[in-house]
Amino acid sequence: MRQWAICLSLMAPLALGAADFAGTWQMERDGQNGQKTVTTYFFKTHGNAFTGTYVSVVNGVQDQVRDVANGAIDGDRMTFDLVAWDKVARPTAYKGQLQNGELTLVLANPPPAGGRGGFGGRGNANAPTVLKKTSDASEFHMPAELAHRPLEPLQPIPANGLAQTPPMGWNSWNKFNVRIDDKTMREIADAMVASGMRDAGYVYLTIDDTWEGRRDASGVLHANEKFPDMKALADYLHSKGLKLGIYSGPGLRTCQRLEASYGHEEIDAKTWAAWGVDYLKYDWCVSNGVYGPEEMPAAYQKMANALRSTGRPIVFSLCQYGWLNVGEWGAAAGGNLWRTTGDISDNWNSMSTIGFGQNGREKYAGPGHWNDPDMLEIGNSGMSTTEYRTHMSLWSMLAAPLIAGHDVRSMPDAIRDILTNREAIAIDQDKLGKQGFRLRQDGETEVWEKPLADGVAVALFNRGGDAARMSVKWSEVGVTKSNPKVRDVWKHQDVNAPSEFTAEVPWHGVVLLTVK
Ligand code: GAL
């Protein structure tokens, strides 16, 4: 009996020997709106350790390639880290178990119920991934249509001379989402003129995602049936003193999984120039499936070069959510503006978190190259008039692009008055081109300043839920002259405040001043 026990205990490590995880493991799942996701892991084992690659393909489009690191095998169990695509953000730890030929993966540190994370932040991160082995191949190879020599590192290019002040205009996404078409664009154009928005400076009208049709045999990308004649639309806008913006991205597909510009940068730039396009928003989105992080600046520069070689002045807007410290290289890559955050939504929390979070980025902004904290939500009904005034004031203090995104055809007077406040716009568009910054914070109140070519703009923001009494001394904002000219931008009134200013600021509200 004793001998058997010894014998069994010696055999145990062999009997429970490490399961064979090497090879290709796959899971297909159907998501909302008929979305089909194929998740594939390629694992390469070295004894009880392993490395690998994670690939996600959504509706046939490869949208993520990430490294697997620190893999450790313990019998039929395993743990590993899924490295963030940018290789900078924290990796996601997974644990897995092999049972009956199925490898079940779950997050090692699941977020609280309802949280997001894992699998690129899509879907229910806590749902297990159940993989089946599909082959012994342990190495991932780029599909032929995406294989390319790694892009050369960024070669800084000189400024294109455009956007000497932050671009102003309107974009279809926030209000119309995928429901934008030629008729709506023309009606918005008419309303921009009739409402006075054009004359206030909002001239770039951009068609965001979902204009894209198919490429023909020669590689030329055509608009879909929603836009029967892009050149005619551009002509219409130009005849009204407006400009046309369009949308694409460096990957194979856009965010809405429509045709993007990968491998067609030059031909697309030529097509847009021939239509009369004046502005391009270039959205990274699923380009993670094509390019590694070290290629991102060069992928943007590729399009900047293509736009330059058309000879047409086209403002270049980078949309990659502020990844990889874009302020450090966005201008060198040919960008006139670059998004610094994920998408804004029409509520106080989203707007204020994004807006106030811009402090510290002021060193990257200046004439020709601007930080873009995303488009305006003013007029989309999710915030109060007071909050929309704060939105407009904050974006103006930030020298942010002022890209409206509401239904201009039916805007109430109160919304028009906010968006066309010439004094707020003058702060945004000030030719010195300095982005404002936080001077001080006291609980939920914040005083911001923005140097102007003549004087300084000062904003007293109250982020709290009750009215607050706030004060600022001119000496704090570097104004030394006695009795400066002080102007309340929202009241459109001069203010008598020889050396300091005090006011009751409503909750979520602002007092915006210029001091000269
Ligand atoms: C997002 C982008 C949005 C909008 C959308 C269109 O990536 O941040 O502003 O362009 O794609 O699909």
Structure notes:
The longest helix is centred in the first third of the chain and has 14 residues. Helix 9 packs parallel to helix 10 and helix 9 packs parallel to helix 11. The protein starts with a helix and ends with a strand. The N terminus is likely disordered. It is globular, with a radius of gyration of 27 Å. It is of the alpha+beta class and 516 residues long. Strands 1-2-3-4-5-6-7-8 form an 8-stranded antiparallel barrel. Strands 17-16-15-14-13-10-9-18 form an 8-stranded parallel beta sheet. It contains 11 helices and 26 strands. Helix content is 21%, strand content 30%. 42% of the residues are buried. Beta-D-galactopyranose binds next to loops.
